[in-house]
Amino acid sequence: QLQLVESGGGLVQPGGSLRLSCSASGFPLEYYAIGWFRQAPGNEREGVACSNNSSGGSRGGLTSYADTAKGRFTISRDNAKNTMYLQMNSLKPEDTAVYYCAAVRRRVCLLGPDGYDYWGQGTQVTVSS
């Protein structure tokens, strides 16, 4: 059925890099706005990056990032593989959280978690020396 399965989390030292993957099944990801979110213990789920769907006209594929992610994180997708990615560089201990991928059938993405219909199961990212 319609689902997102993510992978790629793990333990990394500060300053290191990690790439998360999220594979979509049952729906064409290219027609969905996508996003990556994270949640640390005691905190609300927050958006880190999102991308408009690939058929969004002049704004198709445009991305948005939280201030904490700009310059370090990159969201992307491979429509042929129906997979989305989050490349994380220069990782900091405060990036430690469970990361979730999400998708919604609309053109424009939002960094808020409300409004996304499909969610991955989450993958733990721990940044520690």
Account of the protein in words:
The chain is an all-beta fold. The chain has strands at 3-7, 10-12, 18-25, 33-39, 46-51, 63-65, 73-78, 83-88, 97-104, 118-119, 123-127. It has no helices and eleven strands. Strands 2, 4, 5, 6, 9, 10 and 11 form a seven-stranded mixed beta sheet that branches. β4 and β5 form a beta hairpin.
Condensed summary:
This protein has 129 residues and is mainly beta.
Overview features:
129 residues, mainly beta, four-stranded antiparallel sheet, 46% strand, globular
Rounded to the nearest angstrom, the radius of gyration is 14 Å
Broad shape: globular
Residue fraction in strands: over 45%
Tally the beta strands. Answer: 11
Q: Sketch the topology as an H/E string, one letter per element.
A: EEEEEEEEEEE
Helix and strand composition category: mainly beta
Q: Give average pLDDT, whole number.
A: 95
End-to-end gap: 40 Å
pLDDT under 50 segments (min length 5)?
Answer: none
| Helix-residue proportion | under 10%
Taking the sheet with the most strands, its summary is:
7 strands, mixed
Helix segment tally: 0
